[in-house]
Design goal:
Layout lengths: L1 H53 L6 H6 L5 E6 L5 E3 L10 E6 L6 E6 L1 H52 L13 H51 L5 H26 L10 E4 H18 L4 E3 L7 E4 L1 H18 L4 E7 L3 E11 L5 E3 L9 H11 L3 E4 L4 E9 L1 H11 L1
Parallel strand pairs: 6-8
Antiparallel strand pairs: 1-2, 1-4, 3-4, 5-7, 8-9, 9-12, 10-11, 11-12
Helix pairs in contact: 1-3, 3-4, 4-5, 4-8, 5-9, 6-7, 7-8
Organism: Aeromicrobium chenweiae
Protein name: histidine kinase
Main location: membrane
Length: about 425
Amino acid sequence: MRERLVVTLVAMTVGMIAIFGVVRAYSTADLVKNQERESVSEAADLVSVAVAARGTENVTRSFLDQLTQDGQTLTYMAADGTRISTRTVPRDDDDISATRPVADTGSRIILTQEAAVSAGRVSDAMWSLVLVGLGLAVLAAVIGWLLAKRFAHPFHQLAIDATRIGEGHFDTPVHHSNMREAAELGDALRSAAGQLDVLVRRERNLAVVASHELRTPITALRLSLEDLTLWPETPPTVADELHHGLTQVDRLSSVVTALLEGGNDRRLDRASTVDLAIVAVDAAKRWSARAKAAGREIVVIPCADPAMVRAGREAVDAVADILIENALLHGSGTVTIEIFRDNTHFRFRVHDEGTQVIEPGVLHASPEGDGAGLTDAATRAESLGGFIGVSDLPTTLVSLFLPRADRQRRASDAVR
């Protein structure tokens, strides 16, 4: 937009300067020629007086040469027809001539100025005009660029705001402008952001409720089956059947996840693929200063393989922040972040050395909750297709379970 405004303003200015320059060139050429005619006429008057003062009988060519300037010729016509001239070049139709009688002698003089002299002076005047025109064009370009920058600035700010709103930041403060068109566009953008925010919140709440109602019994069933496989009283054959049952439960969980998503392409806040290993490193960097101020340390155990999940990066970051903040506020000692991989899920584990005070098991989401702490983390996790689990250990270990991207993709393909 800025470039178009600059080009338009400069083109209009150059066009007006060109039209003005052509008219001004013709008038300047005529003015210079008139000045040259007046100059030749005045010089002819002076030459006539000089010849009369010298006496017609004493007029010689050398005397006439002294009365002329470069580009001028002088011809003396005596009363008896005698002709003395300084001319050495042929006469041109555009030469400027002035004829004056010599007082009371019957003779006359003809002063002629060559056309090249007048053309040179017209050319000098034209060059000055061209330089002024170029200067005005450059000045117009600079002023046009400044004006275009000022006019385009509100729309550039609105474009940035629209990009952030499109990325899901519906609370982005839209810039205000005194320009009427930009102000109307900003109002429309605020209205659209508000409506999108309502739609996304409604969709997210629906997903949370549906996820809670469907996944909670599946998760409870899985934990029970997994617990049974660990019992020493469970016979190996039964344990094998339980493992088979766990596989079917995981498959059912993946199918439910795929159905709840309803296809990422139709989601307003559609997810992308996120590497939990990178999330862990970035989260540790964000909280390291606060941990250091409290005399504690955050350690990330490197993950050999990528831990890819399908989720919004900001949503995963938010859950990670809640888990780390919970460990710093309510735990003690070193906070360790580690990524584990099982058959269907990745576990984002946050472990501290404080005594376990949270009841082990799955933390349930609460869409109508206060939106704080681990409850908020559970709500966010279930909206992502995962859940928050607390391990039964002497120390605190809270894990974010998220479905593996590869298994989730297979389940989605199977549903389709």
